[in-house]
Design a protein that fits this description.
3 domains; alpha/beta; Glutamine Phosphoribosylpyrophosphate, subunit 1, domain 1; binds fructose -6-phosphate; Rossmann fold; 624 residues; single chain
């Protein structure tokens, strides 16, 4: 939540939005806008100026760009920029960042929540300081200015300020005394450094500067960074010099562009075959055995695991539900799936034999991070499945398995979901290999099936026209989604996509549950998607779902059925059928969810909604 960009480098030659520091920051904000889009703002420091110059505007970044065109800022050598997801104070011009200190010499931007802001603000008000916003951030500007007045050292002032704040924060600041410098602090919120030639960058994630450099530094918790054109200095909050780890971003700026598609979501749906293929790439040795190189947990520890707890939020949690079916089946280890924000409050029973699997696209979700910390405090091992390199959760885990979905820009998740499911399959098969619960040839067979999935996903995408037509004509105010077994999390994900993209009431149910109450919702014409398992699935799963379709159809529901090619049994009961290729039951979510993603995306687009940036949402949820 909230995107942060900082830049230090040579000044440009003209004072408009094409001037380098400002253009770098605006481009960074454009790429980070998915993190929040309630308002945007910049502050620049021009050499010789007695104050910083700041512009900020409620609404999307385009409003700020218009303002800058009307009211340009001076040529600068350092700049900071912010795109906001509102927490404290509504999405107004006044609450937009940056926030300035009284003397106008210092500007601050912030991501996170300062929990003790009210007490600090009261102290300042008692001293006669006037507050201009309702944000928690403004106290940081006043604190930092006070500390700077006493030490004359912005990095030292930042360290002192950080020690006084409670909560979570990334802060960036510029001061008119230091025209080529940006200082940042990181405590439980993300911040990465981009290393350029004669210029340096800061960003909430690498997307902020990937068009300029792919060489980055991973900052740790509780560190302060100072960037100038030629230097990056990192210390801990006590002022001790720290040497951070360098990494190279493994995707380029074009991966974060629309590439000819109408929206990022359209593009990301089309990226899915590649996201799955890349996540599978290079995971076996010459003998065909799985080798998950990034895993840093000893095989003996994995053999001793007696319980797995998956923690995640939203779509990532639905990937966790799919994982439960696969891992329990392949490894015979009990798997619990828990929403990360509920996890630590119920005092879960954990031991050193518990493997906690945290699934997260961003690697920054605060609820998941806090659950990871709790699990480790209780002695459990934590393995994270993460898409974003340089993020916090892999740093704080015992082991990591990276998905290789590439940057996911649309706020609602699509390709990261498929990559997460794929990574959990790899984990399940790896555990089965280590623990000997599957023969090597059985594992190889599943791997072969998995390698066939990108082509099958591609076929579903290529055949997406019928679901698009249905979406364009859909006028219902409510849609239900039913599934059993691995189809159940797919139903919940289908409902979530529709809620967040099209703002339509949608519910996903286990198909067997509907007769226990939700069937009362069914009325003539109500669209109900049903995910039908393969006729080859076990224990008459298939026929049970066919019965569920009949039950709702008898009550007038309009049945939209997702079924395997050749499954003639569904035809008498389906108002519409969307076919998916034949797939082993456990792997089916990789294809069955795709028509539901296309449906939600198309329906929202047809209604003129912004599918990439739905209302009230932000991509990276860094508050609890
Ligand atoms: C929904 C969606 C969210 C995220 C959730 C977790 O489309 O994107 O539900 O899945 O906020 O985010 P990560 O995976 O970054 O931890």
């Amino acid at each position: 939540m909230c995107g942060i960009v900082g830049y230090a480098g040579p000044a440009g030659s003209i004072s408009d939005v094409s001037e380098r520091p400002l253009s770098v920051v605006l481009e960074g904000l454009r790429r980070l806008e998915y993190r929040g889009y309630d308002s945007a703002g910049v502050a620049v420091v021009a050499p010789g100026a007695s104050q910083v110059s700041s512009r900020k505007k409620a609404g999307k970044l385009s409003n700020l760009v218009e303002l800058l065109a009307a009211e340009p800022v001076p040529v600068a050598t350092a700049a900071i920029g912010h795109t906001r997801w509102a927490t404290h104070g509504g999405p107004t011009d006044a609450n937009a960042h940056p926030h300035l200190a009284d003397d106008g010499k210092l500007a601050v931007i912030h991501n996170g929540i300062i929990e003790n802001f009210a007490a600090l603000r009261d102290e300042f008000i008692a001293e006669g300081v006037r507050f201009l916003s309702q944000t928690d951030t403004e106290v940081a500007a006043h604190l930092l200015a006070r500390e700077y007045r006493s030490s004359g050292d912005l990095a030292a002032a930042m360290r002192a300020t950080a020690q006084l704040l409670e909560g979570t924060f990334t802060l960036l600041a510029v001061h008119s005394d230091l025209p080529g410098t940006v200082v940042g602090a990181r405590h439980d919120s993300p911040l990465v450094v981009g290393l350029g030639q004669g210029e340096n960058f800061l960003g909430s994630d690498v997307a902020a500067f990937v068009s300029e450099t792919r060489v980055a530094l991973e900052l740790g918790q509780d560190q302060v960074v100072t960037i100038t054109a030629d230097e990056v200095v990192v210390t801990d909050f006590e002022g001790r010099i720290v040497t951070p780890t360098t990494f190279t971003v493994d995707w380029d700026a074009s991966a974060a562009e629309k590439g000819g598609f109408r929206t990022f979501m359209d593009k990301e749906i089309h990226d899915q075959p590649q996201a799955v293929a890349e996540t599978l790439l290079g995971r076996t040795d010459a003998a065909g055995r799985l080798t998950l190189d990034e895993l840093r947990i000893d095989e003996s520890v994995l053999r001793a695991v007696d319980k797995i707890v998956v923690i995640a939020c939203g779509t990532a949690a639905y990937a966790g539900h799919v994982a439960k079916y696969a891992i329990e089946h392949w490894c015979r280890i009990p798997v619990e799936v828990e929403l990360a924000h509920e996890f630590r409050y119920r005092d879960p029973v954990l031991s050193e034999k518990t493997l906690v699997v945290a699934i997260t696209q961003s690697g920054e979700t605060m609820d998941t991070l806090m659950a990871v910390r709790h699990a480790r405090e209780q002695g459990a091992r934590v393995l994270s499945i993460v898409n974003t390199h340089g993020s916090t959760i892999p740093r704080e885990s015992d082991a990591v398995l990276y998905t290789h979905a590439g940057p996911e820009i649309a706020v609602a998740s699509t390709k990261a979901f498929l990559a997460q499911i794929t990574a959990t399959y790899l984990l399940g098969l790896y555990l089965a290999q280590v623990r000997g619960t599957k023969f090597p040839d059985e594992i190889a067979e599943v791997l072969t099936e998995l390698k066939a999935m990108p082509a099958k996903i591609q076929r579903v995408i290529d055949n997406g026209e019928r679901v698009r037509v249905i979406a364009r004509w859909m006028d219902s105010r409510s849609v239900l989604f039913l599934g059993r077994h691995v189809g159940f999390p797919v139903a919940m994900e289908g409902a979530l996509k529709l809620k967040e993209l099209a703002y339509i009431h949608a519910e996903g149910f286990a198909a067997g549950e509907i007769k226990h109450g939700p069937i009362a919702l069914v009325e003539p014409g109500l669209p109900v998607f049903v995910i039908v398992p393969s006729p080859r699935s076990r224990d008459s799963l298939h026929s049970k779902v066919i019965s569920n379709i009949q039950e709702i159809r008898a009550r007038g529901a309009r049945t939209l059925v997702i079924a395997e090619e050749g499954d003639e049994d569904v035809l008498p009961y389906a108002d519409e059928v969307f076919w998916v290729p034949q797939t082993p039951t456990l792997l089916a979510p990789l294809v069955t969810v795709v028509p539901l993603q296309i449906f939600a995306c198309e329906l929202a687009s047809a209604r003129g909604l912004d599918v990439d940036q739905p209302r009230n949402l932000a991509k990276s949820v860094t508050v609890e």
